[in-house]
């Protein structure tokens, strides 16, 4: 898909990967609605993009917010062509993680994708065109040491993107799934000194696994993948080899991951 002249919604667009994707889209000639729970962040990003962007604050997992974002896009720019389900949360730890944190992870990292697709895919099928880009994580293909809710919900996000691609790919609906390792965002490096031992373990695992990329570098790779209509977007190419090793000998991979975890502790 050539994004020039297209209308896109980017959730979690107030900072990090989402903000970088919004900038890359506008640079490529698209019109963008930036959404974020942090409304001031979303407005700041949209304001920096001029007349090609507008913003709305709200919860990306809320049906009401998704509908409001779609209506804003339609009234400002026209029908939505691309939806970047990018908002995510990284809270959590081990099996003792509170139920409320599990619920938040499932809502933002998975159900937000389901609800966005439910709102847009029927229209796209009728039009015969549309593009859904899911931000998951390398954790969705591999795992995330130190964070069970993140690992589980990112696996689920990959699974939903796969299903969407298989089910509606022949209806003109394109689907891509972004699975990076370390990206220099607040999700990886929060502005707080109150991180738990498990959160610090998660950060060490990500930072030691490969290069920590800038959001801008990731956004450029995302737009290249959209242009190629490529399903799996891997800003860290080594993830593919890790994934192959996992599939080739699951038990050996699990033993290796346990050794890696021990070394990080």
Automatic annotation (TrEMBL):
Q: Which InterPro entries match?
A: NAD(P)-bd_dom_sf, SDR_fam
Which Pfam families does this UniProt record tie to the protein? Answer: adh_short (PF00106)
Transmembrane regions: none
> Which interval of the chain is the signal sequence?
none
Database matches in Gene3D superfamilies: NAD(P)-binding Rossmann-like Domain
Q: Which SUPFAM superfamilies match?
A: NAD(P)-binding Rossmann-fold domains
Family membership, please give it.
Answer: Belongs to the short-chain dehydrogenases/reductases (SDR) family.
- Name assigned to this protein: Dehydrogenase
Q: Which organism is it from?
A: Gordonia lacunae
């Amino acid at each position: 898909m050539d994004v020039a002249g297209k209308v896109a919604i980017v959730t979690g667009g107030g900072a990090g990967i989402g903000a970088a994707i919004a900038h890359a889209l506008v640079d490529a000639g698209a019109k963008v609605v930036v959404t974020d729970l942090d409304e001031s962040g979303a407005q700041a990003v949209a304001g920096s993009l001029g007349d090609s962007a507008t913003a709305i604050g709200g919860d990306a997992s809320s049906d009401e917010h998704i509908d409001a974002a779609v209506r804003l896009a339609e009234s400002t720019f026209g029908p939505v062509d691309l939806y970047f389900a990018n908002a995510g949360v990284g809270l959590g730890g081990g099996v003792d993680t509170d139920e409320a944190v599990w619920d938040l992870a499932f809502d933002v990292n998975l159900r937000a994708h389901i609800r966005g697709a439910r709102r847009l895919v029927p229209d796209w099928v009728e039009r015969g065109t549309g593009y859904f880009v899911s931000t998951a994580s390398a954790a969705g293909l591999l795992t995330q040491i130190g964070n069970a809710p993140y690992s589980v919900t990112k696996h689920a996000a990959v699974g939903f993107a796969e299903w969407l691609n298989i089910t509606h790919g022949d209806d003109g609906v394109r689907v891509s799934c972004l699975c990076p390792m370390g990206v220099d965002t607040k999700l990886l490096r929060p502005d707080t000194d109150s991180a738990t031992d498990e959160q610090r373990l998660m950060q060490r695992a990500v930072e030691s696994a490969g290069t920590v990329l800038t959001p801008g570098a990731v956004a450029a790779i995302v737009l290249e993948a959209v242009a190629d209509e490529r399903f799996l977007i891997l800003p860290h190419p080594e993830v593919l080899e890790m994934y192959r090793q996992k599939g080739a000998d699951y038990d050996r991979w699990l033993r290796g991951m346990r050794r890696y975890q021990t070394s990080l502790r």
